[in-house]
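Hi R.,

Here's the chain you asked about this morning:
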Amino acid sequence: MRDFRIDKTDEDLHREIWCKIDNLNKPLRSLGRLETLAEQICLIQHTLSPRLISPCHLLFGADHGIEKEGVSLSPREITWQQMKNFAHGGGGVNMFCRQHGFKLSVVDVGVDYDLSSEEGIVNKKIARGTKNFLYEPAMSLEEFERTINVGAEMVGRCNAEGCNILSIGEMGIANTSPSSIWMHLFGNIPLDECVGAGSGLDSNGIAHKRLILQKAVDSFLRNFTSSAKAIDVIRYFGGFEMVASIGAMLHAAELKMIVLVDGFIMTACALAANRLLHEKELLLNPYLVYCHCGDESGHKRMLDLLEASPLLHLGLRLGEGTGALCAYPIIDSAVRMINEMNNFDNANITRYF
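And here is the predicted structure, written out as C-alpha cells:
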C-alpha cells in the first residue's frame, strides 16, 4: 500500500485560536460546539482565518458478494439503479449537494452492472462486486491497493480544483455487513452488538444476518489466528466503495483537507482508516468531522470507540453521505463565527470576564 504521510495538526496555534475565539463579543464559550469546530478547522488549515473553498462530495458505488447470502432486504440491482438515478440528479444526495453548493462526483468502483457508457458516472471499476467473504476474502491485496489509489486519485482531482473540504458517501447493497464486522474486530465488541437491520430487516432477518456474519468471522479467524493486521481485516470483508472511501480519507488528510464523515458505513471506514494508519492511535481523527449518528445498531458505540461527538442525530439511514451534507451549514457557521463576529475592542463592549 502507498505510504500516506499525514502530519499532526498544528497544536502550537491552540492558544492563539482560543484567544481569538474568547475575545469575540459573546459570553465566554457560549457558542459551544461551533467554537471547538472552529478550533479544529483552524488547526487543519494552520490559520486564524479559515476558509471553506469549493466543497466536493465523492460518492463511491460497488456491490458485495455477501449480498447473495440474504443479509440485506434490498436486492443487488438497487445499487446500479441508484447509481443511474444519482447520475441523472434524482437522489437524496443530489438534492443536498445542490442545496449546499457541493460538486458531486459519482464513481463506480465495483458495481455489478455495466455503467461505462453512463454519462455522469466516473468509471473506476475494479471488478463487478467483491467475492463472497463467507467463503473467501472479498478482495485480493492487488485489488485492495488499486481501490485505495482510486479513492486517493478522486481526492486529488478535487484538491486540484481548489477544494479544501470534502464529504464522502457510498452506495452498496449489503455494506452494513462488512461495517458490522469491522466494528466487531477493530473494536473488540461482541458481534451481536454490532449487527442491525440495515435497510430494513425484521427480527428474523437480523438473526439470519448475525448467523452468516459469525460464520464468516469464524472462518477468517481460523485462517489468520492472531496474526491478522488491519489490512487483512479490511480487504477480507470490505467493499470496493468502502476501501475507496478509506483511500479518499487518507489522502484528504495528507492534503490537509477537512473530511466530513457521514453515518454508520463511513464511520466504519473512518475506524478502519485509523487502524490502517496505526493499530491504536486515532491519527486520522484531527482531520475528520463526524457529522451524524444514525439509528443503526451499534453506531453510537462505534463513535465512542473513535472518541467522536457527532454534530447531528436525525435518525437518517439513507447513506450516500446525506448526513454529512446536512451538517455542512454548522461547519459554515463555525467558520463564519471566527471570521465575521466582532471582538470586544472593536465593538466598544466591556469584556466582563
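One quick note: Strands lie at 56-62, 103-110, 121-123, 165-171, 258-261, 288-290.

Cheers,
M.
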